[in-house]
């Protein structure tokens, strides 16, 4: 599934890889920014499904956490075995949005190998940190609105 993920509490800012190799939330004023904020979710689309957020244009690249910071790194494709730690660090579980459990457009991503930590933003950077349901702004920082892809895949011309 191709998606873009907007921050719940900082409207107009999307999960992005535009700031070098670290995950961040950024505005998307240009096509380059929109491309950097459009991802492939590799899992099924239901709560509890596990998957990875991979780059739309370079699917061998995706997010993983290292030292609890989200970074953009090369991930082997499905034909190449991945190291168990890399798999665990780059796999997340789709959850209802921590800030609004009733809105199906709001989601959170739970770390598989640290099951009390979610992808959340802090100081516009993405981290894997706790987001207790009863604490703000942590809940909102870990909730993202699913949007239509900001960019579309580049399809090679037919020959």
From TrEMBL:
GO terms for biological process: L-arabinose metabolic process. GO terms for molecular function: alpha-L-arabinofuranosidase activity. Residues 86-146 form the Alpha-L-arabinofuranosidase B arabinose-binding domain. This is Alpha-L-arabinofuranosidase B (ABFB) domain-containing protein. It comes from Aneurinibacillus migulanus.
